[in-house]
Amino acid sequence: MQQRDKYRLALLAACALALHGFERLIPTPIPWLRFGFANIITLITLILYGFNAALTITLIRVIIGSMLMGTFLGPPFIMSTVGGLFSVAAMWVALQVRVFGPLGLSLTGALFHNLGQLLAVYVVFIQNLRSILILAPVILFVGTLTGVLNGLAVIFIMEHLKKMSDNVQNT
Amino acid sequence: MKPKLLTASAVLFAIALIIILMFVLNASPHIYKKSEILMDTVITLTVVSNSEKRADEAIESAFNNLRRLERLLSFFDAGSEVSAINKNAGTGAVKVSPETFELTKIALEKAELSCGAFNPAIGPAMVLWDFKNNKRPADSELKNILPLLDYTRIVLNSNDSSVMLMDKGMVLDLGGIAKGYAADRTVELLKRAGMKAGIAAMAGDIRVWGTRPDGSPWRVGIRAPRGTSDDLIGVLSLEDLAVSTSGDYERFFIEGGIRYHHLIEPTTGYPAGDFQSVTIVNPEGVVTDALSTAVFVMGREKALRFIKKNKLMAYLIYADGTTYTTENLRALFDNR
Amino acid sequence: MFDRMLLVLLLIITGASIVLVPFYLPRGGQIRIEVNNKLLYKLPLSDDKTIEINGLTVEIQAGKVRVADSDCPGKLCVKQGWIDSGAIICLPNRVVITIGGTPTAPKGGVDATT
Which residues of B touch A29 (CB under 8 A)? Predict the structure, then answer.
C-alpha cells in the first residue's frame, strides 16, 4: 500500500469516527434507532479501495469509537463490532456479484449490520427468541430506510468525487 | 448519476416513512389490566391505551392514590383518619384531609336521602357482627348499641374541615361508600392521565368510562346470588356509568339454617331479609355503592317507592329468587 | 434496477413481518406472582415449575398455571383450576398471580363482575 493511500485511509477512518459520534447527537423517536452514517464511509472505501481497506476502517471506527464513548469491550462494542463485520463482508460479496449500485450495496450493508447485531444480542445477551423475533422486523424495516438515506449519500458523494477527478484530469 | 433512480428512491423513501408513521400513530389500542389487594378486597384496574408504558404509569399512579385513600379511610387501620375520628368519639373533633371530609359529607347526604337506610354510623353494629369468626352477637348487646347508630350525631365543621362523633361509643364506618368513592376518584385520575376508556373495579363497586377498543360498551356481569363467583345471572352493557351490587352472599355465615350477612338494618341491628341482592346503576360510584346498601336494607315496599321517587336504575333479586328490573335499566340489561 | 428491486423487496418483507410475526408467534406469556402487592416472581409460562409461596402451591405446566393447593379457607384459587390468561387471586393469602403478555380475553364474556 502506498503512503498516499495510508493517509487517505486514515482520513476516511477519521470521517467515519466523526459521523459515528455525530449521529448520536441527532434525537430519534426510538432510542435504539441509529442512522449508521459511518456506513457511508465504509461503502465508499469498499468501492474505491477494496475489502481490506473497508475492513480496516470499520475496525478502527469500532475500536476507537468505543474507547471514546467509554464502552470498549462492553455490550455496545460487541454489537457494533459484529454488526460492522457482517456489514463489510456482506457488502463485499454484493459488490462481487456486480448487479448492485451504491444504493443496493448500502441496503445490503444496513440489512446485515442489523442482522449481525440481532444475532449478537441473542447469543451474548438475551436468549429470548420471542422478543428478538418481534423486534427484528421493526429494526430491519427502519434499517432499510436509513440504508436508502446512506445509499443516496454515497451516490451523491461518488458523483462529486468523479466530477472532481474529471476536473483534475481536464486541466 | 441517474436522476430517475434518485427520484424513484426518494418517492419510495417518503412512502415508507408515511407507512411507519401510520404504524406509530395508529398503533391499535389495547386493554391493560392490573389487580391488587387493597381495602380488604381485590381491586382491578383496566385501561385502554395505545401505549403500554403510559397505561402502566397511569395504573401505577392510580394504585398509589388508592393506597393513600386506604390509609385515610380504613376502618381497621388504627392509624387511619377514620380510626382517629372513632377514637375521639364523644370527646373531640378531628381535623381530616379534604377526601375524608368530602366522603363523610357525601355519606351523610346519602343517609339523609335514604332516611337512614344507608348509615355511616352503623359501625358499632358491624363491630359486634363478626363475619371472620362467624360469631353472632347476643340480642341484648345489639339492643344496647342501637342508640349509637344515629348518623345525625355525626357533626361536620367545614371551617376547619373536622369531623366529630357526638356520643362516646359511636363508630364511623365509611365501608359502605368508600369503594364507590374510590372508584370515582380513580376514574377521574385515569382520565386525567389520558386513558380514554377503562374500568375501575373495587370488587363489586365498578365504574366504567368510554368503551371497549372495538367501540362496544363494557360488559359487567351480575353474580348469581346462590351460585359460585363465576355464575352470572345477567350482564349489563355500560358506558360512562357506575354499578354496585349489595348481596347477602358477600360476607355471611349460616347458623341454624339462617343466613346472617353483613347488610345490617340500622333500626334493628339485624341483617335485612327481603333481598338476595340489589344492583344499582348510576353515573356516580358513591351513589351506587351507598344506595345499593340502602335499598337492600329498606325492605321491599319502601325500596320500590324509593327507587321510583329517585328514578334509580335498579335490578333486584328478592329473597324468593324472583327478580325485578326497572324500566330505565332494561335496555342495558341482558338475562343469562 | 436491481437496487430498486432490493429496496422494494426489503420494504415489503420487513414491513409485512412487523405485522405478521407477532400475529403468528406462539403466545409466550409471562407469569407474575405478587404477594402483598410486591412482585416476587416473574417466570416464563413455557417453563414447567412448581413453587411454594405464602401457603400456596403454584404449578406451571404446558403454558398454563394453577394453584394446586392452598391453606386459605375458601380455596377459591384452587377451584379456579388451570388458566392460560387473566389472573388467579387469593384474597386471604394476599397473592395475585397474573399471566401477562397475552391479551386477556374477558372471562365468561364480561369485563368485570359485580
Answer: 24
A contacts of C42 (beta carbons < 8 Å): none
Cross-chain residue pair C21–A136, CB shorter than 8 Å: yes
Mutation target among A139, A150, A152 for the B interface, most CBs of B within 10 A:
A152
Q: What is the pLDDT of residue C102?
A: 46
Contact C7 B206 (CB under 8 A): no
Chain A residues whose CB is inside 8 A of the B17 CB are: 145
- CA-wise closest residue to A90 among A111, A76, A63: A111
For C18, which of A108, A141, A151 is closest by C-beta distance? A141
Q: Is B216 exposed, middle or buried (0-12, 13-18, 19+ CB in 10 A)?
A: exposed
C38 touching A (Cβ < 8 Å): no
Helix axes B3-25, A129-170, angle to 10 degrees: 150
Q: Where are the domains of chain B?
A: 30-71+176-335, 76-165
CB contacts of B53 in chain A (<8 Å) are none
pTM, to two decimals: 0.65
Each residue's pLDDT tens digit, C14-70:
888 888 877 666 555 678 888 887 888 888 877 788 888 888 899 888 778 889 888
Whether A112 contacts C12, CB under 8 Å:
no
From the CB of residue C82, how many other CB atoms can be counted at a distance below 10 Å?
A: 14
Answer whether C4 touches A (CB < 8 Å).
yes
Domains of chain C: 30-109 (2.60.320.10)
Query: Any idea which fold B30-71+176-335 has?
Result: T-fold (3.10.520)
CA B197 to chain centre: 18
Q: Cβ of A55: how many Cβ atoms within 10 Å?
A: 18
- pLDDT band for position B119 (50/70/90)? very high
Share of residues in chain B with pLDDT > 90 (%): 63
Check if the interface score ipTM surpasses 0.90: no
User: Cell for C77?
Assistant: 384459587
Which class is B76-165 in CATH? mainly alpha
Q: Helix (H, G, I), strand (E, B), or coil: what is residue C9?
A: helix
Strands B275-282, B242-247: pairing is: antiparallel
Nearest to B272 by CA among B321, B319, B209, B328: B319
